[in-house]
Design goal:
By secondary structure, the chain is of the alpha/beta class. It is built from eight helices and ten strands. The model has no long low-confidence stretch (mean pLDDT 89).
C-alpha cells in the first residue's frame, strides 16, 4: 500500500435522497454492482486508515454489505455540507489519519491517475487539493487533517454555500489541480438522463 494511503481515511457522502433523480440513486445498478458500492470500491484502496460512510437510508447500508466501514447517520433533508462535516469529524478520530479523501456516493467513477497524482503532492499538507477538469471542480478532494479540523470547528456561517463557499472564504487552504484527461472526475449523476447516458455498458 502507498505510504500516503496508509494514513488516509475515506469519507463517502451517501445520505442524499436523489430528488432530481426521482429515486434513491445510490442503490441504482452500476455494472454488476450499485452506484454507491462502485464509489466505495473505487475509493477504499486509497484509504488504508479506514472508510467512513455518511448514510440516511437503510437501503444504502444494505447495498454496501459486507464492506467494512464506520457508518455515520446523516440527515437527508439537510445540505451536503452537514454530511461532510459529520463524516470529516468521524474520520479524524480513526488512528493515524493525516488526510482524508472526501467523495460523494453519486460519483461512481474515480480515476486512479487523479488520486496517484495527488499522492505525488501529498507533502503539501497545509492545503486541500481539488482535482479539476475544464476548470470545474471534481472529486475526490484530498484534505489534510489541519484543514479538516478547520472545517469541522468553524462557525456554520463559514460553510454557507457548502464546501465551495468555504473554499471561497479560505483560498489559502485550497489548491486546484487540472487534469485535462480525466473527464470522469466531474461527471454528474443527477437525473435519469444522466444515468442512462453514463452507466457502464456490458
Amino acid at each position: 500500500m502507498n505510504g500516503a494511503a496508509a494514513t488516509t481515511a475515506g469519507v463517502l457522502l451517501a445520505a442524499g435522497r436523489g430528488r432530481r433523480m426521482g429515486r434513491l440513486k445510490q442503490v441504482l445498478p452500476w455494472g454488476d454492482s450499485t452506484v454507491v458500492a462502485a464509489a466505495f470500491d473505487g475509493l477504499a484502496p486509497y484509504c488504508g486508515a479506514g472508510m467512513v460512510v455518511v448514510v440516511g437510508d437503510d437501503r444504502v447500508v444494505e447495498a454496501l454489505q459486507p464492506r467494512p466501514s464506520l457508518k455515520v447517520l446523516g440527515n437527508s433533508d439537510t445540505e451536503q455540507i452537514h454530511s461532510a462535516r459529520l463524516g470529516l469529524r468521524a474520520a479524524v478520530t480513526l488512528p493515524g489519519v493525516r488526510q482524508v479523501l472526501l467523495h460523494p456516493a453519486d460519483h461512481p467513477v474515480i480515476p486512479s491517475s487523479v488520486v496517484e497524482a495527488m499522492w505525488g503532492r501529498v507533502q503539501e499538507r497545509d492545503r486541500a487539493m481539488i482535482p479539476t477538469y475544464g476548470g470545474r471542480g471534481g472529486h475526490p478532494v484530498l484534505i489534510p487533517a489541519s484543514v479538516v479540523e478547520a472545517i469541522i470547528s468553524c462557525d456554520e456561517s463559514e460553510t454557507a454555500g457548502g464546501l465551495r463557499g468555504y473554499w471561497e472564504r479560505h483560498p489559502d487552504q485550497v489548491q486546484r489541480i487540472e487534469f485535462p484527461d480525466a473527464a470522469g472526475l466531474v461527471m454528474d449523476l443527477d437525473s435519469p438522463d444522466d444515468y442512462a447516458a453514463m452507466q457502464p455498458r456490458s
